[in-house]
Amino acid sequence: MSQVTEWTPLAPLHDFYDEKIVLILLNQPITPMLKIFKYLWQKAVLKVFVDGAANEVYSHLSKEDFLPDIITGDFDSIRPEVKEHYQQKNVEIVETPDQDETDFTKCLRIVFGKINHVEVERIVVLVGFQGRVDQQFANFNTLFKVRNFGYDKYVPIYVMSNSDLTCLLKTGNNSIEVDSEFRGAHCGLIPLGCVCNSITTTGLKWNLDKAPLEFGHLVSTSNTYAENLVEVQTECPILWCMDLKF
């Protein structure tokens, strides 16, 4: 029997979850996510602000209590006084001027270089799409690109907003635990970047049986749950998306 990749996307939102996480805050208005951010901050062993995200924390939260380990990006958004403040607090400042990759992608390269020396079980990325469809696709593209970084240590990445969560399921067998008060009503499987010629699921209201998923044809959206455990067998990496309820 082939190995099963286990996913527990909602576990960090519960008090019983005590695994160590990396918390990345992308450039976004932080106000809608203050509660989630503060809660996950307490569980993070490595905290990273990406460029203008530092402005948001500086403006809306305690400048002394929420000091990240790293601030990174091309720094086209961070205000000079904000950057200076965190430099004076001995926060590691890593400028990444390369414009061939997004700040998120470059941030993950830095993070994966760090976590070889830190025990972590997952990376949680807080985002706020704010109507920017191009940024959504850029973030999804990063989830695909990280597979080719070449680091030995694999750590699952969950991209979370105040309304939904996305992760990239691996080729093969995946088991997704969704028993949580924070689970919303809907979920989906999105074949981004390639045709998925065969995918089989259990635990959903509308399951797939060796079905092909492809843009322009069938895409599994607006699905919902029949059980608290969803199993997905896929011949290629595929995006798992789910609503959140707070």
Strand content: 25-35%
**CATH domain topology of the largest domain:** Rossmann fold
The number of helical runs is: 5
Largest sheet: 10 strands, mixed
CATH class group of the largest domain:
Alpha Beta
Helix percentage range: 10-25%
What is the total domain count? Answer: 2
Shape from CA axes? globular
Notable traits:
246 residues; alpha/beta; Rossmann fold; Jelly Rolls; 2 domains; 5 helices; Thi_PPkinase; EC 2.7.6.2; kinase activity; ATP-binding
Can you describe this structure?
Keywords: ATP-binding, Kinase, Nucleotide-binding, Transferase. This protein starts with a strand and ends with a strand. Helix content is 20%, strand content 33%. The strands form two sheets. The chain has a ten-stranded mixed beta sheet with strand order 5-4-3-2-6-7-8-15-10-13, sandwiched between helices. The protein has a five-stranded mixed beta sheet with strand order 1-9-14-11-12, with no helix packed on it. The protein is globular. The chain folds into two domains: 16-162, Thiamin pyrophosphokinase, catalytic domain (Rossmann fold), CATH 3.40.50; 166-245, Jelly Rolls, CATH 2.60.120. It has five helices and 15 strands.
In short:
20% of the residues lie in helices and 33% in strands. With 246 residues, the chain is an alpha/beta fold.
